[in-house]
């Protein structure tokens, strides 16, 4: 089966359901080039794919805070001198070495979140990496992973132009979405819409996170924390009597949402009826996350010309 997204077709490695209701077939070989955000987004993908009956093999080239530019410069260093330690930044291996360890069906790329709203930071590195991957893995389908905006109460948001930052979660989402779609169109690549799913949930009147205005942030006392119900981001936590705040990275709920989006996108199958839920995510919220993930994937189907093959 083929999952068509835009101008590309992603091979569905999972075979049709057999008579006993179980899927069979060769694993989908997925290679992720990214940073901590890709680690967050695919955190529970293996558990979901196992439950759904889709064998999955995952390879990774991830470095914290790594931009498209840095990934390319590391690849360039390894090409110039394969023995240069600079090019072997991925646990002692180069990107070329990792990509050459197997035959990959899907390879994903993403921008560093702080730069995700500035389309000029993608150029020319997205195309250089795209061409580099295509040379090493000619049959792979190259996909962009759309990252998410920071939490609404963040003390700062991502860059949208040189010297200019977004002023809100909404603006960061809008600008990063525009940048991802612009580059994806230039390269004819599909998009995993994780950022859209985050915004759809965050902007929902019932399910979106709202800052706790009753908490005294000027004099916090451990172990008390503000109410952070429905937060898709890590938010506040105590660390050795110090109140820390992470408005960027995904919470378990955010990681779950990201993994559900990846599942729906990669396998063309609704995750709504899957049973796996991270321990800290309430059941009612988890159900909403599953619905949001699938509705977001279906919107890509409806909005992208030539998008075919997802099961409704």
Outline the structure in words.
The protein has 312 residues and is of the alpha/beta class. The protein has a single domain, classed as Rossmann fold (3-Layer(aba) Sandwich), CATH 3.40.50.1110. It is built from 9 helices and 11 strands. It has a 5-stranded parallel sheet, with helices on both faces. The chain has a two-stranded antiparallel sheet with strand order 1-2. Helix 8 runs parallel beside helix 9. The longest helix has 21 residues. InterPro entries: DUF4886 (IPR032616), SGNH_hydro_sf (IPR036514). One of its GO terms (molecular function) is hydrolase activity, acting on ester bonds. It comes from Larkinella terrae. It holds the Pfam family DUF4886. This is DUF4886 domain-containing protein.
Question: What's the quick description here?
Answer:
With 312 residues, the chain is an alpha/beta fold. The protein contains nine helices and eleven strands. The chain has one domain: SGNH hydrolase (Rossmann fold).
């Amino acid at each position: 089966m083929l999952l068509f997204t835009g101008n590309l077709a992603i091979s569905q490695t999972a075979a049709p359901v057999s008579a006993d209701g179980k899927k069979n077939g060769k694993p989908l070989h997925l290679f992720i080039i990214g940073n901590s955000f890709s680690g967050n987004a695919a955190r529970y993908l293996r558990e979901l794919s196992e439950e759904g009956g889709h064998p999955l093999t995952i390879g990774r080239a991830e470095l914290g805070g790594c931009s498209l530019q840095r990934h390319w410069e590391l690849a360039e260093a390894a090409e110039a001198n394969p023995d240069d330690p600079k090019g072997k930044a991925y646990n002692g291996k180069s990107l070329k070495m990792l990509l050459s360890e197997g035959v990959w069906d899907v390879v994903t790329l993403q921008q560093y979140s702080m730069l995700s709203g500035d389309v000029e930071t993608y150029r020319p590195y997205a195309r250089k990496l795209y061409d580099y991957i295509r040379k090493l893995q000619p049959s792979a389908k190259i996909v962009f992973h759309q990252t998410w905006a920071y939490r609404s109460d963040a003390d700062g948001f991502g860059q949208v132009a040189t010297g200019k930052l977004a002023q809100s979660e909404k603006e960061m989402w809008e600008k990063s979405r525009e940048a991802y779609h612009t580059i994806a169109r230039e390269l004819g690549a599909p998009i995993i819409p994780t950022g859209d799913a985050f915004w759809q949930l965050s902007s929902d009147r019932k399910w979106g996170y709202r800052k706790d205005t009753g908490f005294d942030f000027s004099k916090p006392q451990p172990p008390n924390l503000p109410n952070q119900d429905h937060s898709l981001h890590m938010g506040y936590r105590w660390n050795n009597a110090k109140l820390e705040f992470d408005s960027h990275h995904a919470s378990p709920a955010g990681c779950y949402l990201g993994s559900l989006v990846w599942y729906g996108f990669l396998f063309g199958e609704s995750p709504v009826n899957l049973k796996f839920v991270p321990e800290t995510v309430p059941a009612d919220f988890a159900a909403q996350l599953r619905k949001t993930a699938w509705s977001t994937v279906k919107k890509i189907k409806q909005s992208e010309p030539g998008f075919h093959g997802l099961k409704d």
